[in-house]
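Render BURP domain-containing protein in 3D.
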Amino acid sequence: MQLAPGVVTNGVDVLRLPSMGHSSSHIGHSSSPSSADAIKDPTAKVFALIKDLVIGNRMAVSFPYKEPSSVNFYPKEITEGIPFSSEAVQELLQYFSFAPDSKQALGMRQTLALCEKEPKEGEIRGCVTSEESLVHFARRILGRDVRVEILRSSLVSKTTPIVQNYTILGFKEIATGNIVPCHNQPYPYPVYHCHYQLGIDNKVFEVLLRGDNGEMVNSVFFCHMDTSKLTDDHVAFRLLGVKPGESEVCHFFTAYDLATVPIPK
């Protein structure tokens, strides 16, 4: 398939700059930070434990701002018309007018490599480029005929500090069991990497937070209940002071991540 450089399909501009500063501090993510430098990364301030969910508790959390266009799926009619493969990198670089050595090109290559990586034993993983492909992926895990709900944290405003103290105003458990987390990746249009570990139940909460600046955030709080197979150098264990297998590890989802859960019948 040949793509004309700079084509805008159906009036939707698919050329956006990926956020190279996006933190992949998610548990189970193949590029999770493990160096001591990761602790200094402000966007790593997303981790907590279930016991930290106490009304009135105040903690520093990172909710970076992102343009809504970078997180909301484009119609599948658009994304299905664009190759999504490392084999098509040169064609894609020309299409999006990216220099081969640019940060945008690097982000695109890294995302394609992640999406094409073989899953580990007992793992289901893949990348989705539309809401339809997300639902299809989730149903592979949740059940073919299951209705799927997509959970996202609310967007913060442009003026919100990347990190500030938030006070917990309320929380409730949304689901336990089969939950599929997905993380936004650097790419010219919204792409999410989704992953699921077979036989492991997780939990997801909805947490209402108020920032010191007065802004309210309705956040998804995702908990990995079995951490025994994770490496002990992950930044989450360093920040929380726990070791693999001795505690769950939870993290607040920013607005550019999401989770899918089954809707009860």
